[in-house]
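Subject: Sanity check before I submit

Could someone independently write out the structure tokens for this chain? I want to compare against mine line by line before I put it in a report. The sequence has 357 residues.
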Amino acid sequence: MAGDETYGKDCIFSSLAQRPNPGLAFFAFSLINVRSRRSSPIKMEQIVRSAEEKAACKAKAQARKTKKKPGEKRKPGRPKGSKNKDKQQVELYPELKPIQSMLQALVEQIGTFLSLKYLVLDGHFGNWPATWMFMQNNMHLVSKLRHDAGLYLPYAGPKPKHGPTPKFGEKIDYDHLPAEDLVQSSIEDGIRTDIYQTKLWNKEFPIPLNVVIIHKTIFKTQKVAHVVLFSTYLELPFDKLIEYYKLRFQIEFNFRDTKQYWGLEDFMNVEQTPVTNAANLSMLMVNLSHLFLDRYRSEDPAASVLDLKAHYRGYRYVAETIKMLPQKPEGYLLAAIFLQVACLGRIHAVQPSVSTA
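---
Independent answer below. Compare away.
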């Protein structure tokens, strides 16, 4: 980022630093190859909050602080004046609108030759408005719920004499999960991992969810923790649901490479269009480097991005030097020079071999 005048600069929460830091926000869609476990970015745009969005966010945070006083209990029953809401009539909050435009444009571009079935997003998008938006594009969402999300078993009691049959049954107790829903249990390094899968309801969603709860217990300290994953595709097996959500982290590797190798962290552009171009160019280089590395790793499995950059930098140095010579060297000598210089600066050096025959 060039400085204070960079377009879209804002306070972005850093999960590593655990605090907001000045920076830029980008949203990227990537295709993930399940077999090779590789993410390929295909569309990225900058996310910029308007002044109205910032004001609304601050007002919402302030309202949460003043809504409930310490030690004050909420009165039982429904708040006076509240009305039923039709969850099928969804109003997207401002953050989702540019993402919706990106998704629709992406579907139009690749929908004719590639059918997208699953969309994996982190827990920030584990809510009904985001889920509804993706379902409108015929995609099933794989995401995460809060660790304390209210989940309910389907109602299994008798039909009431009056009124409709309830949807919600008994509320899930994360400390005492139903034994019949246990699908896998394992012990490793003194930690027991129990995986539960079942169809549950959440009051924020008008549809049932395919929920997988990963419950871990440390034998030595008896501490417990759990993660709640879900999908809108009710027939997705638990192992695939977990695997798909894990693959989401491959996108983090893309962003790591753009900042470490391809200039996303230190570009000097400040205007909107140049900033967008610089960010997308860095993502393009991620895809290109993957293609070139596949070729080089067939002969040198340890080759890295730094090796690739050193290789082509060396070739460029030799090419510019050769232009200055009054007479070009013989072909075999020229090839040897190229190979020798291209190996300089590599992390995983290889011994060049050139035939003089």
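---
OP: Matches mine. For the report I'm noting this point. The mean pLDDT is 86.
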